Every structure is written in C-alpha cells, then in structure tokens.
Q: What sequence folds into this?
C-alpha cells in the first residue's frame, strides 16, 4: 500500500511484515500525518503496540488501546536493596503487598475513596457512569494481571528503587469500547472520531479522566508499597526521585510547526530531557531514561522490552523450570510460576537490543536489576 505519509521506524533488523502492514494501513487512514514505529513494536488488534501516530483532526481509539493511561511509576528509597536479601525479609514484604495491593479489586468494605478530582467530573454516558460507580473505588490501587507488576530493584550503586506498571483497569476498556461504537469506519476499516465533533470531545474528556484515574491508582500503590517497606525494613521514599509516565494516551502537541493529535500506544513521551521509564521483564534489567526530543519519532520512545512470543506461544514453549532458571536471583511467589510462564524473560525481546535501536530517541540515565517481583494472574 503506497502512501505519502511517512512511516519512521526504529527497529533492530527488518520490521515484521504484520507490523509493517499495520503501520502503512494506519498511515493511509483519515487525517493521519505521521507514523513512528518503536523498537518494541509487536502485533495487536488494529494498531500495533509500539506505534505513535500524529493526526490533524481525527482520533483513533484503537491507537490508544483499551488500558487508557497504562504506564509506569518509580521512586527511590533511602536504603540499600541488600536489605531484602534474606528470604524471610523478602517474604514479609511480599506478604505485605498481597495484603495492601490486590490483583483485581478490593473487598467492598476495604475499597478506598475516589479522589474528589475524579468524583467531580462526570463521564459522557450513563453506562460509563454506572461502571464508574460500580468499579472505580474497588479497582483503585490494584495492580491487574498480564504484564502489570510491582518490582523492587537495585540500581548500579545498590540503592533500592520501586517500579510499578498498571493502568486504568476495567474502566479504560469500558471507555474505549463505548467510543469505538460511536466511531465512523474509515476507508481502510480503522474506526475514527472527528476531534472537533461532540463524539470526539466526549472521547477526549473520558480519556483524560482515565489518565488521571490511572495516575491516582499508581500513586496509591506507591504509597502502599512505601508503607510495607517502612514496616519491614524502615525504608523512607525520596519524593524528589518520583517519576511517572503514561504510555497509552493521546494529546495535542506541536511538531514541525503543526498542531497534531499525538496518539501513543505502547510508547512514552520522550521530549528533550523528559524523564521516562522503560521496564524489561521479571528477570532482566529496567532503565530510567531522558528523552532526546527526536522530531521524526514525534518526541517518543519505546515503553518496554516488547513481546517476542505471544502469550499462547510462550505458555506452549516455556516450562516452569525454565522460568525459574531465567528469573534466578529474583524473589517472587513460585506458587504462581505455572501461570507466569508467559511473563518469562524469554517471552520478551532483549531490552538492550531495544535500547540500541532507539539510541537516537532517549539516553539511559539509570540501570536497575530486579530483586523482588509481585505480579497478578
């Protein structure tokens, strides 16, 4: 499919044919002005994860995805990561996380109160309002499943850090699905909204709510982890070290003098000197970065290592003993090992390869290795 809209790629080796075809289909769709494919790109429905698209006047909910506001937060502590070296200590921390951060939802009588800033902003439909009343408080501060995680890490100097990955939970998916039903079908089948029409403005308002909800949820989990660490190892967080970034969102930005709606699905903003977080996998390094503001990438970079194997293929090929070998030295709940095989390091790309491919997009400022991982199933 030929198109005059540029498709910029940062990828080690040839771009997979499915990813390439999806990117060019997107580039030829209504209102699209620019597409950038990140080095962690992999196939997903309609728009690949690891894609950045700039549009003039159209919005593509599928170019944001269902987990609106999914992202990563990190904070450093005033103790060495070696304080978790004793298995008994690590087990107490893990038990505290089970108590304070549920996988799916809080028990009804333990659910937190939704912040006023989220209560005071109505969503655009009665159905979404019903979902918010039913689930917003019970899912606030819950980690989710899949590749979402809480991870305690050690930097190069041995300092203890927290990194966590979660999003807007079921509410983001409800918002995406509601607005997809209001979309127009494009000439190539991709559903879109007119950004200046009522339906487009409703989507932007609901998406902004989901971004704020996801951020509030991550901050609540940061506080919960800090309370566990304070109780077990007397750790104190350093507020000045806190970093948080969304990697599923759309926002208006100016690039090369043109105002664009920049959609990021599995990509983080990487403007000049902008702080970002790129997790690896549950047995490999993660990094903190600073953006280089590359215009051809719409000021973006990769959001993680990116999947190498689909979840189905990973479960078929990776055994429990293999997961244990790949995650050697990392404390996690081995009772869940069978369910976590699709999260094994070999199911993901080598994060060092991703970082080499995007050396024009961001610079690494801190490298961290996992010490303890808490994941849902």
A:
């Amino acid at each position: 499919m030929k198109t005059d809209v540029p498709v910029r790629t940062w990828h080690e080796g040839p771009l997979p044919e499915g990813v390439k075809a999806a990117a060019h289909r997107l580039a030829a769709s209504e209102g699209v002005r620019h597409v950038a494919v990140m080095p962690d790109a992999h196939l997903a429905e309609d728009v690949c994860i690891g894609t950045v698209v700039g549009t003039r006047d159209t919005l593509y909910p599928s170019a944001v995805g269902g987990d609106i506001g999914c992202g990563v937060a990190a904070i450093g502590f005033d103790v060495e990561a070696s304080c978790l070296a004793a298995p008994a200590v690590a087990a107490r921390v893990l038990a505290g996380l089970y108590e304070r951060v549920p996988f799916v939802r809080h028990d009804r009588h333990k659910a937190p109160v939704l912040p006023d800033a989220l209560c005071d902003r109505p969503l655009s439909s009665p159905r979404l309002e019903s979902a918010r009343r039913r689930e917003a408080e019970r899912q606030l501060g819950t980690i989710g499943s899949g590749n979402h995680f809480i991870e305690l890490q050690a930097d190069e100097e041995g300092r203890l850090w927290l990194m966590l990955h979660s999003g807007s939970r079921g509410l983001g998916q409800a918002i995406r699905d509601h607005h997809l039903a209001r979309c127009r079908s494009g000439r190539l089948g991709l559903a879109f909204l007119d950004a200046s029409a009522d339906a487009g403005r409703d989507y932007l308002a609901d998406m902004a709510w989901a971004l704020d909800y996801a951020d509030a949820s991550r901050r609540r989990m940061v506080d919960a982890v800090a309370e566990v660490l304070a109780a077990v190892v007397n750790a104190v967080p350093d507020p000045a070290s806190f970093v948080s970034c969304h990697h599923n969102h759309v926002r208006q930005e100016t690039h090369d003098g043109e105002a664009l709606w920049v959609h990021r699905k599995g990509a983080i903003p990487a403007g000049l000197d902008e702080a970002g977080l790129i997790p690896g996998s549950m047995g490999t390094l993660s990094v903190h970065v600073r953006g280089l503001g590359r215009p051809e990438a719409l000021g973006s970079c990769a959001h993680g290592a990116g999947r190498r194997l689909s979840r189905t293929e990973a479960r078929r090929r990776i055994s429990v003993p293999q997961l244990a070998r790949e995650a050697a030295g990392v404390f996690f709940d081995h009772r869940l090992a069978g369910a976590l095989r699709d999260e094994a390091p070999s199911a993901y790309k080598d994060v060092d390869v991703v970082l080499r491919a995007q050396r024009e997009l961001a610079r690494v400022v801190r490298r961290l290795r996992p010490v303890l991982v808490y994941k849902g199933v």
Summary: Residues 202 and 312 are 36 Å apart (CA to CA).
